[in-house]
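Why do we bother with a discrete structure alphabet at all? Because it lets us treat a fold like text: something you can write down, compare, and reason about line by line. To make this less abstract, here is a complete entry for 3-oxoacyl-ACP reductase FabG. Read it the way you would read a sentence in a foreign language you are learning: slowly, and without expecting to understand everything at once.
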Amino acid sequence: MRLKDKTAVITGSANGIGLAAVRKFAVEGCRVIMADYDEQKGNDEAEKMREKGYKVVFYQVDVANRESVNRLAGTVTREFGGIDILVNNAGITRDGMMARMSEEDFQRVLEVNLTGVFHCTQAFLPALVTSGKGKIINTASASGLFGNVGQTNYAASKAAVIGMTKTWAKEFGAKGINVNAVAPGVIETEMTAKIPEKVKAQMNALIPLGKFGKPEDAANAYLFLASEESDYVNGIVLQVDGGIMM
């Protein structure tokens, strides 16, 4: 098993790509700490995994709140002694055209998608350093690489995550920690389910593979970057987008 005896924290893991990653990691022998704001959904999904014999627990967290993140890190350190993998997957959207976007919507997306990644990484960094061989995986986006109409806040947050990823890859490499990012394209999640069918058809026409990705596609990229197979991979942004941004 590719993650046997490893311990991972995955934020934003009650649904979508994060939940798919939980399932992938657990099957590969990993102890998985699910962390999400949605307490009911998170507990339900963790219970389903435990019923199948996997080592999965859930803790509620608000990644935008430093006290909440510190409590999570303290609890995980006490209960598990440390971690080997941190997946900063939590994120939100509040789309709107620039001319009409409210300051509240702009700031809230940055608080969760950007500041939340900073909070979690700083809080768990001591545990990762202690492990002597840690992996940090940040969720970026094709929007962060190429921009997207109606996503000033989201694109800004993800572009900044890419900048932090490359900076941390340089800072933490000497400590034995690999830092990489995954940039999903259009993935079939609750977010994209709200897109009108006509718009979906137009988007599909732009994707060389002719279809949206599935959460498992991005989770497979997380698994690779979390495993020993990527031990000499550092500071990359792995695009999982069906070729839409070639």
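What the structure line is telling us, in plain words: Residues 7-240 form a domain with the Rossmann fold fold (CATH 3.40.50.720). The beta strands are 7-11, 31-36, 56-60, 85-88, 135-139, 178-184, 237-240.
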